[in-house]
Design a protein that fits this description.
The chain has 380 residues and is of the alpha/beta class. It has two domains: 13-262, Spore Coat Polysaccharide Biosynthesis Protein SpsA, Chain A (Alpha-Beta Complex), CATH 3.90.550; 284-372, UDP N-Acetylglucosamine Acyltransferase, domain 1 (3 Solenoid). Helix content is 22%, strand content 27%. The chain has helices at 48-57, 70-77, 110-116, 118-124, 142-152, 205-218, 225-236, 254-266; strands at 13-19, 39-40, 44-45, 61-66, 91-95, 128-133, 136-138, 156-162, 171-175, 181-186, 195-204, 239-243, 248-250, 290-291, 296-298, 301-302, 307-308, 311-313, 316-317, 322-323, 328-330, 333-334, 339-340, 345-347, 349-351, 356-357, 361-363, 370-372. Strands 5-4-1-6-11-8-12 form a seven-stranded mixed β-sheet. The longest helix has 14 residues, at 205-218. The N and C termini lie far apart (51 Å). Residues 295-363 form the Glucose-1-phosphate adenylyltransferase/Bifunctional protein GlmU-like C-terminal hexapeptide domain.
Amino acid sequence: MAQQGQYRHQPRILAIVLAGGAGGRLGVLTDHRAKPAMPLGGSFRLIDIPLSNLHHSGISDVWIMEQYQPKTINDHLRNGRPWDLDRTRGGLLVLPPFSGREGEGFAEGNADGLLRQSAFIRDFAPDLVLVLSSDHLYRLDYRDVVDTHLRAGAALTMVTVDFDGDASPHGVVTVDDDGRVTGFSYKPDEPQSRIVAAEVFLYSAEALLDALDRLDGQQENLGDYGHHLVPHLVEQHAVVEHRLQGYWRDLGTPANYLRAHLDLVAGSGPDLADPAWPILTEPPHVAPAFVGEGAVIAGSLIAPGARVHGTVRRSVIGAGAVIEAGAVVEDSVVLNRVRIGSGVSVRWAIVDSDAAVSGDRIGGGPDEPVVVGRDGEPGD
């Protein structure tokens, strides 16, 4: 396979969506669901973002690497139909943990997961392997990343963002004036730049498989991409960045999850219904939202099936949720089928699906929102 210049044919691209993590940073929100199955914007799921980007980018060979709470993802995937991936050839393939041959067992990190699937990747024989996380909010035509990769003749092209927050929880990248990656540090205590990896990686398949084989002989466990795989490629091969312009946010913590939803209602986040690039999902099978007489709604997203009789400001209300008369919800995310009782004030909070919230006041702050579990009580 070529690594310099253009491929003589249209490159065969395999997309692998990483959907196996337990999402422990989200606390009780992921006790009963996989993080990629978390609701987004009232009507969507986190995994809809990469799958929709893939659809609009014309990439139709898509593997979903699952591990934790897989049924909560599979119930949503519907064999890939919402993203036109229910095909006779190609399309959607789910990769659960397995036993019985090389690579069996549970992965201990996303790079370890790729290693366990490396025999299947080799059999598929792609030219390029596009590896995507499923807990970020952004819009990107992956064909632009492919163009960057081919022009550079790179072994790895990583999508990066100029991040305006604390870079230390991310992979931090240094680049030269030509966009070549000169350094990479995974979750450093003292970041050397503001440029972080957006966890969209395009590998030349040959370089990826060779690196996995080499590292497997050197390391007891490959862990996550930033532990050994990406540093090895940065040291041994040509690695370049593709800078993402526009909105990007990691939704893996309660604060970021809430902030992303507040960005959506404020109009500073991506337009999920943009007719040129809509987010695709399994359509709801519920009645339209109902707004009662005397209800107050301002600057909010109200999902189908919700019923609002109280006051909702700058919030997202999920499908089937009920906000009773006399209840106030502000700067919050209320997930599906929640009931906020009369007289309850909810602010700076995330309320999990099926919770019934009663009492007086529940709230936190923009940087430390309260997470209310299914039992209606604030989580740890």
